[in-house]
Amino acid sequence: MRLRPHLHRIGNDIVAAYFVDTEYGVTVIDAGLPGHWDDLLTELQAAGRSLHDVRGLVLTHGDSDHIGFAEKLRRECGMPVYVHKLDADRARGGSKPKAAMGSMRLFPLLQFVFYGLRKRGWRTQYLTEVNEVADGDILPLPGAPRVIALPGHSPGSIAVHVPAADAVFVGDALTTRHVLTGRSGIQPAPFTDDPEAALDSLARLAGIKAGWLLPGHGAPWRGNPGDIQDLVRRAGEQLPQKKK
Q1: Burial of 167 (0-12, 13-18, 19+ CB in 10 A)
Q2: DSSP result, the chain
Q3: Cα–chain-centroid distance for residue 228?
Q4: What string of DSSP letters covers 171-189?
Q5: 53: buried, middle or exposed (CB in 10 Å: 19+, 13-18, 0-12)?
Q6: Are 225 and 161 in contact (CB under 8 A)?
Q7: Would you say 139 and 145 are in contact if contact means Cβ atoms under 8 Å apart?
Q8: How many CB atoms within 10 Å of residue 135?
């Protein structure tokens, strides 16, 4: 799906990845599930591009539903894969804490599970090589993506700001569609290692000049990134509280 000039989405509101198309080539942001490889090829073709135009892949974090075709792209096409140094081990298949799932509803949960099966989520290959990045890095890729550390969902969660696309890609720092409840709108993401840290990190988006905020799950959001922390906080306060 072409969202605007230079900006394309792969997948849907359940699981999404993106790429930025510039005169210097293509930068892919996140790799969804393994089955999104075919969607990547289709969307590149629709944009008049091919794998030969891809210069690299940036991961917002190392979870399995964001690294789906990353190793395939790296191994078969020789493309560098960038991930924050604190999530490098996770992207390679290292251990991760078990995060609380929270509330859920049967139908959205089944949608998430069956979509994962359809997109061959069980065949995810972990990375064998990564390029580690840190907060503030400007990567040598089309669109000059800048790394903004957003620890919380995972230690190495990042946002990726690409001015050429007027967009900031936030991975699972928040969501606009909760994969376990089906609830839509800006809100905290499930499966978050440290929810309080994740909320605090969103203050780092203040001052970012971007008209589009793009999550890994849910619809693209248009607005001021500086408003995001308050919106997520208010949404979190409205969620059912666990009984003690």
Answers
A1: buried
A2: -EEETTEEEEE-SSSEEEEEEETTEEEEE---STTHHHHHHHHHHHTT--GGGEEEEE-SS--TTTSTTHHHHHHHH---EEEEGGGHHHHTT------------HHHHHHHHHHHHHTTGGG----S--EEE-TT-B-SSTT--EEEE-TTSSTT-EEEEEGGGTEEEEETSSEEE-TTT--EEEEPPSS-S-HHHHHHHGGGGTT---SEEEESSS--EES-GGGHHHHHHHHHHHSPPPP-
A3: 16
A4: ETSSEEE-TTT--EEEEPP
A5: middle
A6: no
A7: yes
A8: 15
How many whole angstroms separate alpha carbon 84 and alpha carbon 69? 18
The 10s digit of each residue's pLDDT in 95-121 is 888 877 778 999 999 999 999 999 999
- Name residue 89's amino acid: D
Q: Is 197 exposed, middle or buried (0-12, 13-18, 19+ CB in 10 A)?
A: middle
pTM of the model: 0.95
Q: What is the pLDDT of residues 139-152, one digit of tens each?
A: 999 999 999 999 99
d(CA 150, CA 46): 32
Distances (CA, A) of 235 to 57, 212, 239: 31, 20, 7
Provide the CA 147 distance to its chain's centre, in angstroms.
13
Question: Residue 108: its pLDDT value, please?
Answer: 95
Q: In what order do the strands lie in the sheet with 167-171?
A: 146-149, 158-162, 167-171, 212-215, 221-222
